Amino acid sequence: MLTIQEDHKIHIYPYTKSFSNCKNDEEIIQSCMDNIVVHEIFHYFIRPNLSNEGETMKDEFGHFITEGLVQYYSEEFAKKYRLGNPKSNYGKNVEFVKQLIASFPDNLTQTQIDKMIFTLNQDELLHMAKNGKYMYEEYVADAKFRKNISSFIVEMGDTIGMKQDDDHIQKILRHYKNMNDKNTMIEELFKNIDFIFKDQVEIRNYYKQKLKNMISDKNIKEEFFEHEEPVHKTR
Fold first, then answer.
1. Nearest residue to 155 (alpha-carbon basis) of 142, 147, 146, 164
2. How far apart are the first and last CA of the chain?
3. What is Dmax (Cα atoms) for the chain?
């Protein structure tokens, strides 16, 4: 976490878990320099996120692209000046940013690109990119899908008597949140439904049909069509 205090200096407060493998203060300081300081300092200069009152998705995207740009520039800077290898959980964010930058006009110099990154807001950056609008739409679709998956898991948990704040449900939610491959995610969910509700045909078919309806991608729909079972209505 980075804050600007009254002394006009940047103050960095790293999370304790960042140093779980450190044996002494020297290792903590080195870990802080390698993995935290560069990233947090770039946050002071790269601020593309906008305040979109009432637009939750825009706010979420602002955070997403900010972390991606900050981590991307942190890694490049650290590599250039041999300052270690900044670790993060922002791999997906960085990949998005790399695609965004690759979509900028070909006639831009690196200096011009850097100036854009450090001065433009998220809407302006998307507008500059040839595929910006499409990339944002893809981000929104993916974010909505993942939120639906989380709600789906919570509903299944409730069906078997587990509340949303249950540690096991939270662990499952984190597992699927960190899963990048949608095909793997869907395949795993279908198998889990079969296992959890193996003796409850109606409930099993209900959740398998609901999961299938959540899949918007046409190719994925065709691939997992075989998982749908006939729903036998009770009289």
1. 164
2. 59
3. 74
Q: Classify the C-alpha dihedral 124-126-131-136 as positive or negative.
A: negative
Structure token pair of residue 63: 């955070």
pLDDT of residue 231: 44
The CA-atom distances, in angstroms, between 195 and each of 188, 198, 235 are 11, 5, 26
Residue 96: count other Cβ atoms within 10 Å of its Cβ.
22
Q: What is the pLDDT of residue 5?
A: 53
Question: What span, in angstroms and rounded, lies between the C-alpha atoms of 70 and 203?
Answer: 45
Backbone Cα Rg of the chain: 22
What Å distances lie between residue 19 and 13, 38, 40, 42, 214, CA to CA? 12, 16, 16, 21, 40
Residue with tokens 């960095």: 12
Please state, in angstroms and rounded to a whole number, the distance separating the CA atoms of residues 130 and 114.
Answer: 17
Residue in this structure with the two tokens 């995610």, named with its chain if needed: 185
| pLDDT averages per 10-residue partition of the chain, 235 residues | 57 62 79 79 86 77 94 92 81 95 96 96 94 94 92 95 91 90 92 95 95 71 49 40
> Distance between CA atoms of 116 and 33, rounded to whole angstroms?
27
Tokens of 84: 């270690």
The pTM for the full model equals: 0.77
